[in-house]
Amino acid sequence: LTYSRPGGVTSDNFLDLPNLRLEPHFLDYLSNAFAPLGVMIDDCRAWEPADTERHYQVIVTNDLEAAKEGTLLLRLVSRDDGQVVGQAQARFRVEALGQTSVSMSVRFPSRPGPYVLRAELQSRSGEQAVSRRKVQVLAPEDARRRHNLAQGKPVVASSEVTDARGNCPARFVNDGKRSTRWSSEFSDPQWIQIDLGEEHTIGRMVLVWETAYGQAYRIEASSEGENWRPVYETETGRGGTERITFEPTQARYMRLYGQRRGTQWGYSLWEIEVFEP
Question: pTM of the predicted model, to two decimals?
């Protein structure tokens, strides 16, 4: 029952172990994380563009043997000066031993900088809980460069493994999760392509390999998904997370074409991410 802090590692909750002095926020964070009437901001990414509105699902979990109702506050607080710059309020009701999701929205300010998103639960019977997420608000140009153009877009692959060896369909390669993956059949060559929906100027990609990586492969681009032009090629891929840059190119479709595997298994990727230069 631990958490990690900046400068520490998992289970490193003591600032002074001989004197049993805990990290100062340890009890606060843990008491909220395991509160019998708990709250959690779901699907919160680490950055948001300035001057935009974002919708969140706030999850309320009730481990008590009685239904609960009350108020939720979603606040955006500046980490520079502690000022509340955005706020939303909603009512909740959750059944005994149940869970409910409440949709709430907050608008991010035009001023870039570090913020904290806080969901604060207050029940009618007095229970309280807080969920916190750090969010960096970015200027439009910085946000554009961080936006993953591939996430959630249509995917086609030469093959996929969805049998007793594992559930690894092509659609998992860009679902935004590092816990799901695509795997090809265990042979060469193999390929996987993503339809970005419209043409973009592409200059960077990130490949997050599972153990089964590609040793020799190329990155290809296309405007219509039929005629492909290489933008990057290697014969010395090492797996892990590969951050690839190439000359900016106009494309709607991006394809990874595997020529030689680095293991006896297939080509397997947790994620493919595509970015503008």
Answer: 0.72
